[in-house]
Amino acid sequence: MYAVEKKFEIEMKLKREMTNIQELKAAANRSSSLASDVCNVLGACEQRLQQLETAVLPLYGDTARLQQIHHNMESTVTALDHVINYYMVSRELADLIQAGPHTGTTEALNIYLEALDKLAEAQNYFNKNNPQSVELENINQLYNTGVIKLEGAFEELLSRNTRPLSPTTLMDMIALEEDSSVDSVSVSGSDSTNPAVESMRSAAAWLSAAGRAPSGALLAVRAPAALNSLIAFKDYLRSRSMGASPLMKSKNMLHRTDSTQRRTSKIQKVLEKRAINIMMKASQTLEQSTGLAIGPRRSINDSFSDECMDAMDEREAEAAGSLCAALVRVARREQRAALGLVPLSRLPALLTAILRDCYNLLASEVERVCTRCRKAASRCSAGAAACWSLAARLQRLQPDMTRALHPAPPAPYTAILNSCLHHCVRSLEEWVEGVRCDGAAGAVDGTVHQLAAAALTYCHALAAHVNVIGPALSTEASYVRAAHGLVASDRNALMLSLYMRKVLAQLNLSLRTKSEQYGSESLKAIFLLNNTLYVMQGLARGGLLDALAVAEPRAEAGYRDIVQDYKQAYLNSWNKLLSYLVLDEPLPAKLRDKDRQQLKDKLSSFNREWEEATRAQRGYSVPDPELREALKRDNKQTLLPPYTALWDRLAGVSFTRHPDKYLKYTPLQIAAQLDGYFDEAA
Length: 682
Prior knowledge:
There is one protein chain. By secondary structure, this protein is mainly alpha-helical. The protein contains 25 helices and no strands. The chain is elongated and about 200 Å long. Pfam families: Exo70_C, Exo70_N.
């Protein structure tokens, strides 16, 4: 059963497969028939397309040629229109160009600039395509006219908007010197919204692009304005300086019209005249009695004149420094004004040219002040230090000037600063030479010489500028050699200390030389003692002893030793007087005539010398109260013991019938007269 079923199943599958084969054969026949039909159709289509292509291709070529012809015609028409515009531009723009630019608004100016651009374009066309054209001459003429009118309008607009800065404005700008907001260079600001400024920038930009940057106009207009600003400022400072001058104040006081002032002036003149006559007679009497030709004290008028000269030197230096500060402000103003008006590549040369006369003005003022200070140095005036205050201010302003001149180099300003420093260094040496050659004699009373006071004042003034003086002296070979081997934490302080040591050493030599004019050893010692103590105390008061100790560690001890030496020299001046108090040999119990005569001679000589010394030393001047009392005390200790001993010994000895003639002064009287020393001049 199972085999029969299996056979039946196989036969059924075979039958189905045979059926499928027959169907596939039928489908293949149909597909072959359809493929043949399709091939026939496609062949016919291909044949027809070939026929169509053969017919259409010539038409495409004709169409392309027609399109090219049309494009050429349009290009020709456009080119003709463009060229015709070049031929017509001079006629169309002649009236506008001849009328000149309207600078009232930026829009009106732009219309004019666009017309010039059209003329420039027409110029380029004819230069390239038809250089011999008559129309080119018309365009060139009209274009040049337009450019000239634009330059004239720019210069006129620049002139209208350029005014010299008033002195008060510059003073306000200098007062804001340390305000950081004014240090930045910014084109944007209040001027950037000004229609005139915008018009100038538009015109300048067009001229620069056309190769005709308005540097000449800027130089012609801005340079005189900058110079006039500084000249007016200088005159303003001079008028203020003249008004503040003590000489002018005294002159104004003398010219007051009220009767009280006139009366006071007359009385004062009479009193001054009488005082001068009395001093002259006293000087003549002293010279006749002593045989000395000693110079008098300096008069009040001379001292006042010197003080005025020093004050004038300081004011002149301050004015020159203020002028430099004003130049910095003017330079910054010119820099901001020029930005946007000329190409950056031309800005350095333009700024240098605009400020050239300003630099020359500043250089002449600095040179004048330095020359004045060098003259003051040659006469040993404290006003000579004013040039260092000027140099210090020039150095402080150097960074501001560099920023104000950027991108121009600060070479002119650097040259002015270097010249000022050169004069300052030379003034130092001239001051020392002035001390050496000073011919002013000491006062008749041996008081402090004006040279010592001037030296102290000068050193105090220099100490304020140690950071400027130090680097300047570091370039001098003599000071470099002197500093070799000295150790100091502050090089600048060392340089100043070396110079102060040089000044004080020369001062000491000069004072010693002046002391030789005195015939009296006591007055010579008093003169040197007064001056040395004055210098030492002045150095100590101003802290200059510490500065001097950098180069001379024993400066204070050395001065104290010198003071003691001069004290001893003064006390030694009593040796001649003391010799009269010492007997050549002991007195015998019974006096002989020779012994009596010896006592009379010694006492007479003592009295004569004592009276002369007392008369002279009452007029000696010892300004320092401590020194004055110390000298009185030392005088008593030197004179009273030997005189008292001799007085006591001779009080009971009968060596004359007139003892009061020889023992004229008791020890108490001697002590009282010693207490009166130095009081008249004190």
